[in-house]
Each structure stands twice: as C-alpha cells, then as structure tokens.
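Notes continue from the previous slide.

Worked example: a multi-chain complex. Inputs as given:
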Amino acid sequence: MRIPKHIGIIPDGNRRWALAKGLGKEGGYNNGILPGLDLYHICRELGIEEMTFYGFTVDNTKRPTIQREAFSQACVKAVEKLSKEDAELLILGKTSSAMFPDVLKPYTSRYRFGAGGMKINFLVNYSWEWDLGLHEGVIGPTLKTSDVSRIDLVIRWGGRRRLSGFLPVQSVYSDLYVIDDYWPDFKPQHIYDAIEWYSKQDVTLGG
Amino acid sequence: MRIPKHIGIIPDGNRRWALAKGLGKEGGYNNGILPGLDLYHICRELGIEEMTFYGFTVDNTKRPTIQREAFSQACVKAVEKLSKEDAELLILGKTSSAMFPDVLKPYTSRYRFGAGGMKINFLVNYSWEWDLGLHEGVIGPTLKTSDVSRIDLVIRWGGRRRLSGFLPVQSVYSDLYVIDDYWPDFKPQHIYDAIEWYSKQDVTLGG
C-alpha cells in the first residue's frame, strides 16, 4: 500500500456533534482531543512522516466567546497531551493577536518532544490571508508556512467537501478524502479507509 | 434553489476517455469543445454570472508534443466557438512562453463577445506558481488573477478529488463536486446534480 508522507487533518463537525448530543455548540471541542491523539498514534505506526492539524482560524475567533474559549482550550490541552509523546511540533498562526494562546508561543519554532520523529504542524489562529501576506490585492513577500511541506492527502471529517482556507499552497495537489462522521466520532477505520483510497489514486502533481 | 455566482470547471479525463475508445491519448481533447459550449449555455440559462474553465497548465505542456498540440488547438477552437456567443472572456496564463497560443493573446484583457454578459475566465498555460509569483519561497507582489472573483463551486469531471493547482486563492472556500464520468461524456444532468448538491451546502466562508 502506498502511504502518504504528509497528511492534512480537518477535524470538522464538533458543533454539529454537540448539538446532536443535546449540548451547547461549545460542548464538542473537548471531545476532539483524544481522537487527535489516537490518530497521531495510528499514523506514527503507519510510518507517516508529517501531519498538519487544522486547529482554529482567525475567522473562527469571531464566534461567540464561549465557543472561542472552548476551541482555544482544546488546542492547548491537545499540545499538553502531545508533549508526553515523541514528536516535533510546529505551531503556525497569527501570534500578534490576543486570540493566540500565550502558552503556545514557545512552539512557533519547531519544538522536539521526547525522541522527536514525526513532524506535527498545528494551525492555531491561522488565516490563509495571513499565510500569503494578502492585503488589498498585494501578496508576499514570503509564505508564512514555508517550513510546511506539500500535503499528499487531506482528510476532512463532518461531510463538507471543501478546504476552507486550509494551507492553500501546500494543498494544491492534495487528494481530498471526506468522512461524513463528525470529528468527535473518530474511528481508526476512518484513517485506514482514507489511506486505502489514497493508495489507489495516481500521483501526477499537475503533470 | 441557491445558484452559485461563480463556478470553476475542471474538465478532466480526456486522455482516459480516448484510451477507452481505442484512440491515442491525444484523441479526447477535440471531443471536449462542444461539452464546454453546452455547459456555457446551461449555466447562462441558470443565471450563473461567472465561470472559470481549466484549459491547460504549464505542467501539462511537458507532455508529448502530439498531446500538447491537441489540447492547445482545442483551447483555440473553444474560443472560436465562444466568439459567436454573448460573453466576456478573460484568458489567464503565462504569455511569455512559446506554449501560449499567439491567437489567444488579444483576450488577456477582458474582451466582449456579442452582447457580453456572463464572465468567462479561461486558464491557458496557467500555473499556480506563476499566479502567486512564487519563486524560491518568495511570493508576490500581486496575484496575477486578481480580476477573478471567489469561486463558489468547483466541478471536476473524471473522478479525481483534488484541485490540481486550480486557482488556489479563489478556491479557498469552494465546494468541490466530483463527477466520475470523463469530460467528453458530459451530460446536462451533471450540472443540474452539481447545483442541486451545492444548494444544500451551508456557506460559512471560514466563519
């Protein structure tokens, strides 16, 4: 089976999951932390070299405070969990904003946990316009995420068939695999199915 | 039904269609011209304001000459057909290359055919790196396709679930609808199904 080197993860559907459980919209994010850790373990086992997780975006922070605090705290807790594993973490996002959690600032340069190994990129208070330096039609001069490699496979939970601003440059040639289940309902079979599907796709890189 | 304002078209599968018919790989492109015109008529009827067609890319021109000439000629013929309709054509691509057909140069500024109306953008010898001005990690200073608006819905024929470098900035929030049939097998029902699906999606633009 052909294993992707770099997988992008869009863990969507937390709010719809919470509503379906009779919770407030903010009630889903805390249930998205352990799925992320499970996924990391499975991917490490499979030999995947790099993963990028979509944490939250600048646009997301315009939501009600109770939701914003919930997804922001979930990101902080996810990093706490990861810090007990072997990984090389890089957090990418707009740090010049009160929305960026202070405790995550040390990780905006690549940071080794344990024995290192798998690269984990985590988009926190990210924005594609920020990434491209886009402002009134002018772009550049450098991609903020130039340390992030090309993504082979993007997996999105929650049924939407779109990238929603996820790393537009690294995703130009990515295959997009969509899972209808909401992210807090993550099952290992999701990732096995995604990789089996990916291994049957051709790789042309635009050629 | 909610109608998208701007649709992106990735007419893939021409070579696989040709092989399935026992033709050489170059034999499909000529059968992709009339489908494009049919699609234009249907979308105009539906009130869609803008369409962008993926013609060919700089990467595609590295293919064998017989294929390159076939897809290049198909693009020229498609413009000849469109010139008898009402449309506002803008061709976007790298003109400073022998691969860009000379006869298409007049259309690299927006050009009105007949009574004008629907905007048609046509990517010819396009490259996402060219679009972003990307060179050795430096980007900018301006997006080459800044006259092209945000795309609501990208429809891809030929079964691949990827954007393949198609307007990365305008596609950040696009919904992606994939049709397994090859492009030369276009049927009007494809576009009706795509728009019906699109009309059931939510529009968050990252929010």
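Summary box: Residues 6-198 of chain A form a domain with the Undecaprenyl pyrophosphate synthetase fold (CATH 3.40.1180.10). The longest helix of chain A spans residues 65-82.
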